[in-house]
Amino acid sequence: MEPSIEQINQWRTDSKNWKWRVFYYNKEDSRLLVDKSNPNMGSTINFAHPKSYFFFIGMIIFFGIVIFTIVLAEK
User: Fold this and answer.
1) What pTM does this model have?
2) Residue closest to 47 by CA, chosen among 23, 16, 21
3) How far is CA 56 from its chain centroid?
4) What is the CA radius of gyration of the chain?
5) Which helix (H) or strand (E) holds 33?
6) Which residues pair with 23 in a beta bridge?
């Protein structure tokens, strides 16, 4: 069951769901990608989601390969 917009806004604005005001961690929220506390700033990962760490590591590897390729192409 999808959460209502009111529930999503409540989760997003609740400071208990934000670790160090940077990392979103809410076990009740089943979404992997969520809006930041200020939705104009984009999205972030729900680190309570089981697949979040795989997604995060995958992003780091992807951007690492991109940077490595750019540096390698400059030589």
Assistant:
1) 0.76
2) 23
3) 8
4) 16
5) strand 33-35
6) 19
